[in-house]
Amino acid sequence: MPGSDFLLTTWQGGGNVPPELGLARRLIGAGHQVRVLSEPTVEPDALAVGCAFTPWPTAPSIAAIDRDTAVIKDWRVRNPVGLVRRMGSEVIFGPADRFAHDVLHVLERHPADALLMDVAQFGALIGAERSGLPTVGLLPSIYGRPTRGHPVMGSGWLPSHRAIGRARDTVMPYLLNRLVGMGRPRLNIVRDELNLPPLTDVFDLWDRCERLLVLTSPSFDPPPAGVPANVRYVGPICDDPAWVEPWTPPWPLAARPFVLVAMSSTYQAHDGLLRRIVAALDGTEVSALVTLGPGLHAGEVAGTSNVAVATSAPHAELLSQASLVVTHAGHGSVIKALAAGVPMVCMPHGRDQGDNAARVVAAGAGVRVSRRAGEPAIRAAIGRVLAQPSYRAAARRLAEAFAFEAQTRPNAVAEVEVVLSR
């Protein structure tokens, strides 16, 4: 139904924004209109892809890009349980009423035909349900719902066939559900205010979306058994962020193996790691580019004769010439590299990065190295992946699988338009 109006709600989590705005750009290209409801740091990117923009009227901004203003400084947190609780109280459950009422308030001012919603925002999902509009949930990473028999997100584990692994994957989803479920009373207070029935499970909000689109490949992240009927794996959206600028290499890229170093777009205390990576690459028989992203300041990491440093560069374009990517293993960086058939050295910091790194290693498309590794270990890992053709062959197999899926499976726009047609 060309000409439909969408409201897209999201937050500044770094890697979630480019694929969600990439979907918005594709919907606009198909003749629809999209308004983004998010925090102010998202506005330039939203306008750049052709969306209208409205900031949250009362809900809090995460402000995750800048280390000084970020609400949740997860690089300082040593206790994962404490991090989940703080995220719940300050971002997800505590201000749920503000997110819900903001959605309804903006819909009064800017009516929409359907909603696109980052499913991490449970309060906004309550507002969507109260509006009665068709709702499409967006999960711009691997499937993250705690599911019996499947490793929990953030663990860095893969499904296990051993008895101890199966027991782990039975107990841990239960415990995580219990932890997340501590926010259910707060959500039910908000629902009661809006004359909605109470939840028996926090993730029932995901089930009430007409579609929940997982923006990744099932070849990379095989779906767990028994996913709800509304879940669709629609493939990755590999757009570069709108803030990326052109970059001119100071040497011919084809002269030596080209290594792209791509870390987080939000600050994760990774400046020291980047300096160790530069030192590991210095003087080797490669050319390399380190992109800082908006989370770091120019000058915090210095280049060398064979290692260039830039604030940003078009990764999607450069990957066609890359021999290797060194990355924190955020979903966007990993998927872009695999889609281009480029192997990786993964150095995860946290969040979903260990899970993505585990999938890369399991596929044979790269290696995992501790983010605390010294220069010799980093240099050895880079040399190993560059020297062994099996890593690139495995990455290319995944690239072929992604391409096949793109030709044979419904994409995100098609699934959204199915919801509209109903």
Topology:
Blueprint: E1 5-9, H1 17-29, E2 33-38, H2 43-48, E3 52-55, H3 80-92, H4 96-109, E4 114-118, H5 122-131, E5 135-139, H6 163-180, H7 184-193, H8 204-207, E6 211-214, E7 231-233, E8 258-262, H9 271-281, E9 287-291, E10 307-310, H10 315-318, E11 324-327, H11 331-339, E12 344-346, H12 353-363, E13 366-368, H13 375-387, H14 389-408, H15 412-421
Helix pairs in contact: 4-5, 9-13
Highlighted features:
globular; six-stranded parallel β-sheet; seven-stranded parallel β-sheet; 422 residues; single chain; Rossmann fold; 39% helix; 13 strands; alpha/beta
How would you explain this protein's 3D organization?
This protein has 422 residues and is of the alpha/beta class. It folds into two domains: 5-233, Rossmann fold; 258-404, 3-Layer(aba) Sandwich (Rossmann fold), CATH 3.40.50.2000. Helix content is 39%, strand content 13%. The strands form two sheets. The protein has a seven-stranded parallel beta sheet, sandwiched between helices. A six-stranded parallel beta sheet has the order 10-9-8-11-12-13, sandwiched between helices. Helix 4 (96-109) packs across helix 5 and helix 9 (271-281) crosses helix 13. The chain is globular and about 65 Å long. The relative contact order is 0.12.
SSE arrangement, N to C: EHEHEHHEHEHHHEEEHEEHEHEHEHHH
The computed structural class is alpha/beta
Helix content: 25-40%
What Rg is obtained from the alpha carbons, in whole angstroms? 21 Å
Percent range for β-strand residues: 5-15%
Q: Major β-sheet, in short?
A: 7 strands, parallel
Mean pLDDT: 92
Specify the CATH class of the largest domain. Alpha Beta
Gap between N and C termini: 10 Å
Count of domain modules: 2
Number of helices: 15
Would you identify the regions where 5 or more consecutive residues have pLDDT less than 50?
none
